[in-house]
Amino acid sequence: MSRDTQLKERWEQLVNILSNQFSQGEDLDLDAIIYLIGVQELGKVHQTFKKDEKLNLMHIAICRLLEPYGFYEFEYFDEDGWPHFKVKEELPPLKAGEQSVLMKEAIVNYFLEKELID
Question: Superkingdom of this entry's organism (predicted)?
């Protein structure tokens, strides 16, 4: 099976699992899944977040997802328990489709690590 085919199948499996758990019949999109990962990484799953906090959650998720690729490195948790990352290497310029594939691959790898999918 090609790498692209395997990624597509795992992505679809993941979207189905997460959509069934967190959505009312609608498939979650990439941004929604990134948000969920941010909430998971923060560890405050039963909290309501303001708009700016939601953006920060997505930033946390992106940093965590791209950490294994060498782009970010975890630094510390602040007094409120929010993780902070530092940039290790700037992301190369990517087209929208390339960004989407990179994020889907990083998300699939994240959930493989968490053993939600195989």
Answer: Bacteria
The rounded average pLDDT for each run of 10 residues, N- to C-terminus, in the chain (118 residues) is 88 95 91 96 90 96 97 96 95 92 97 92
Three-state SS letters, 10-72: HHHHHHHHHHHHHCCCCCCCHHHHHHHHHHHHHCCCCCCCCHHHHHHHHHHHHHHHHHHHCCE
Q: Which two tokens stand for residue 65?
A: 């997802």
Model's pTM, two decimal places? 0.92
Residues with Cβ < 8 Å from 91, sequence gap 6 or more? Answer: 66, 71
Taking a C-beta distance cutoff of 8 angstroms, is the pair 28, 36 a contact?
Answer: yes
